[in-house]
Design a protein that fits this description.
Elements (H helix, E strand, L loop, with lengths): L2 E6 L12 E5 L8 E6 L2 E7 L21 E2 L8 H13 L4 H7 L4 H4 L2 H14 L18 H12 L4 E5 L5 H15 L4 E5 L6 H16 L4 E4 L5 H13 L4 E4 L11 E7 L16 H12 L2 E6 L4 H6 E2 L7 E6 L32 E6 L11 H13 L2 E5 L8 E4 L16 E3 L4 E3 L6 E3 L12 E4 L3 H11 L21 E4 L9 H10 L5 E4 L12 E6 L13 H13 L13 E6 L5 H7 L3 H15 L6 E9 L2 H21 L7 E2 L3 E8 L2 E10 L2 H20 L6 E8 L5
Parallel strand pairs: 6-11, 6-13, 7-9, 7-10, 8-9, 10-11, 12-13, 14-24, 15-22, 15-23, 21-22, 23-24
Antiparallel strand pairs: 1-2, 1-4, 3-4, 3-5, 16-20, 17-18, 18-19, 25-28, 25-29, 26-28, 27-28
Helix pairs in contact: 1-2, 1-9, 5-6, 17-18
Length: about 725
Amino acid sequence: MTHQLAVLVHTPVHSAVAGTLSYVSELPLTVGSLVRVPLGQRELLGVVWDAPLDSPAASFDPQKLRPISSALDGIAPLSASWRQLVTFAAHYYQRSVGEVALAALPPQLRDLSTQQWGRRLKRHAKAGAVGEPALVDASELVALSPEQTGAIAQFNTNSGPFLLFGATGSGKTEVYLQCVEQLLVREPDAQAMVMVPEINLTPQLEARFMARFAPMYGDSAVVSMHSGMTPAQRLKSWLAAHSGAARIVLGTRMAIFASLPKLKLIIVDEEHDPSYKSGEGARYSARDLAVYRGRLDGAKVMLGSATPSLESWHHSRAAAEGGRYLRLVMPSRIGSITAPPPAQGDTTLRVNDATAASAGLPVVRRVDMNHQPKHCVFSPPLLAAIMERIARGEQSMVFLNRRGYAPVLHCADCDWKSECPHCSAYRVFHKIDRTLRCHHCGYAERVPRACPACGNPDIAPMGRGTERLEEHLAELLLEVRRPNSVSDQWPEGEPVRIVRIDADSTKLKGELQAQLARVHSGEVDVLVGTQMIAKGHDFRRITLVAAINPDNALFSSDFRAPERLFSLLMQAAGRAGRDADISGQSEMWVQTFHPQHPLFEALKRHDYPAFAAEQLKEREQAGMPPFSFQALVRAEARTQEVAQGFLSAASAAATQMAQADQLLAHLTLYPAVPMSIQRVANVERAQMLIESPSRAALQRFLAAWQVVLHATRKQPEGRGLLRWAIDVDPLAI
């Protein structure tokens, strides 16, 4: 007897075979089972799926259907809630269900033969044996602050979702650990997911969770999931989570689709971070899907941040006020003390802004660069403050969110600049390997000996990146020597130790961990880097953080730029004074030509609520998110005319469609325009924005518009188009 199955495979939404395909099997297979099926000349991994209600598959002659190739034995079917999560994500973000479902599974599931799969399962069964929890009460080793205790109590007595609004250094990670621990005590078989925005934060978090839970549940109880792992590691972690052997899954945004059949708790750390929004394929938001998945699985959800996204802040309220999220507040640092006021009569900065921060948070000093020596990179007062830290044996951190030596190489005679021949952007000068490198398409070549346009040998860098900043700081501190009293390990006369951490200096495997270990052990005096060092790291010896050039984001055309800048500066400031013994002398220095800007006023007071209130007021007046909902349609072609022509034709057809369905009253379709960087790798890019005050109306329109977009591509206006994609809830416009 044969059984007819609906199987989902990896096909794009515009494919002629999108949706479930019909196959037959000699054995009955449960919905959610993993199988291999033939499609054309290929054999693909598939998932037995719920047959759609309107499927004509029942009328097919089973004799004409192809049989499945094999089933992946020894693995439990994917749960109904997981399938529902995938279906929702696909529909909301306008992708095919098969594309989302199969992309969420480990790549090795597609590649292993039947024999290899059998061997892998045997190894997993050996390694995944879970013993009885050891009688270790780790909670007794940690003294909680009253704010932590209150937050945990509210978490335990309410259903959530929760927004944990805690200052940097307030002990949010310990709250996460306690919530996970209490869950596993109450429900020994339960699972928890803890998400972080970036791969480089995973090892640090994993070390803390392993130290807490490995003694109780074994080393296999905590697993990680992120794109930096090898395919074999990803499969091992996925199997441990899917089988229930892993009690705790730590990961980046991809972990939101992990199969955890007993999921009872989801924690999203640094929930404001834009890294939770995917930039390719199904452009999903892992933070938003975490809230939805919590509802599906009956799991509690906690979003944590010192600077929450304005969307989350807008939806959160205190317990007595009501709201979509329950706000838990921890404004004080652990073991913190009140920072001292500035010295009287200090007029060096030309701004009287060095106020005592809230308990233990660094004092924010704004340097008015209009009153500093022209073209100086480090103002004299900032340089003096760094030297003072070196003399005391403390560390400083200098933050500039631009890697490379200089963003542009320039000829003063003919005004030639190092433009990328394949992108509408400049190639960045990297002095260490003497290359001009495009950070968009990767094109690189050796630095020319003379100007390629006029032959002038005097070509010079313009602007600064972290590489040039490191070199310049080393020149300024060349004569500075570390005192003998700092450490017996470093004799008097030893030069200042400067380390740079960015994407260029940490390319090799293990290099980032090695550099961070040097900072933690005190082998570094000044740390220079990009946003890689500005968030998440627990540097105990840093007492001064400096932002060199943050003004660019103040007047950006992107309405989210001020929110991102404030968050980044607050996170960077949070790296200073994390040790209670030295928190009273910690400072955050901001060099700016606009010291009176409201953003810096709020930063000075560490007043995120005031900043958020002002930003939300402006957005409400302008009808921007979270008071409206947006989607972007992006098109790519060899010429800008083709890309914009496709979008304009689709917009005209959409207008007719929306008028017929009476949707136009709830929508605004903006004209097609080039993207901010309109050419990348010789591909022209254009975009069109759709906006609506109603999320439901926008979703109805996008679902109906898919057919129009596919049809438009087949028209003359779509000839020459390379690809198009819909981005729902875009973070960059």
